[in-house]
Amino acid sequence: DSGVTQTPKHLITATGQRVTLRCSPRSGDLSVYWYQQSLDQGLQFLIQYYNGEERAKGNILERFSAQQFPDLHSELNLSSLELGDSALYFCASSADRSNSPLHFGNGTRLTVT
Amino acid sequence: GNSVTQMEGPVTLSEEAFLTINCTYTATGYPSLFWYVQYPGEGLQLLLKATKADDKGSNKGFEATYRKETTSFHLEKGSVQVSDSAVYFCALTLSITGNQFYFGTGTSLTVIP
Predict the structure, then answer these.
(1) Burial class for B21, CB neighbours closer than 10 Å (0-12, 13-18, 19+)
(2) What local confidence, expressed as pLDDT, does residue A91 receive?
């Protein structure tokens, strides 16, 4: 058990809809990362937060947004969903020291129909 | 820029065979290096890490040595088991980039009895 909790585990929705994915980091971890994993594109970094502030952005679409709350949990919002957004979305957290590894949740599988 | 290159898969081995998965990196600075493993239906789990040149990370019979001169961090195991079937990701992080992580594309390993 990594200590990172993601909900929901599965999500099925229609094109054009909006969904929110939730992540609770490991106790004590200040940094949260979001990744998208699809079959044809591997693991894509979306965005990183540190203690409530956005620290780095990767290949995140404008239709997607995220935030980290004062209690350090994070939410990833996906809107105007398209079929191509179907993927596994992973949250990871770290202690954010120079050698700290990432600890991943088990992911949310999003299916857009 | 910073990047990780992994050998292409998929890799299929017989039980008890020797495993090598190649990983090379490019980094502006002195990265920490990691191997992650992803079993079917799960998130990525930290397998091992090395934080400086000539360090050897090891776990569950897997080993990898941080080679600065060849910018490599190859994963090895002397005798694979069916239960090692998974996808393996090489990754690096750099404190000067705010602890961003850079992942390879993953190498799928299947071990047959």
Answers:
(1) buried
(2) 97
A30 contacts A72 by C-beta, under 8 angstroms: yes
pLDDT at position B39 = 93
Name which of B5, B46, B95, B99 to mutate to probe chain A: the one with the most chain A Cβ atoms within 10 A of its Cβ. B99
B99 pLDDT tier (thresholds 50, 70, 90): confident
pLDDT at residue B98 is higher than 80: no
* Chain A neighbors of B99, CB-CB under 8 A: 31, 94, 96-98, 100
Q: Is B34 on the interface with A (CB under 8 A)?
A: yes
- Three-state secondary-structure class, residue A100: coil
Contact B106 A107 (CB under 8 A): no
- In the DSSP assignment, the letter for residue A73 is -
Cβ of B1 under 8 Å from any chain A Cβ? Answer: no
Residue-wise DSSP of B37-88: EE-TTS-EEEEEEE-STT-EEEETTEEEE-BTTTTB--EEESS--GGG-EEE
**Model confidence over A45-94: pLDDT tens digits?**
999 999 999 999 998 999 999 999 999 999 999 999 999 999 999 999 99
CB-defined contacts A:B, below 8 A: 59
What ranges make up the beta strands (E) of A14-63? 19-24, 31-38, 42-50, 53-57
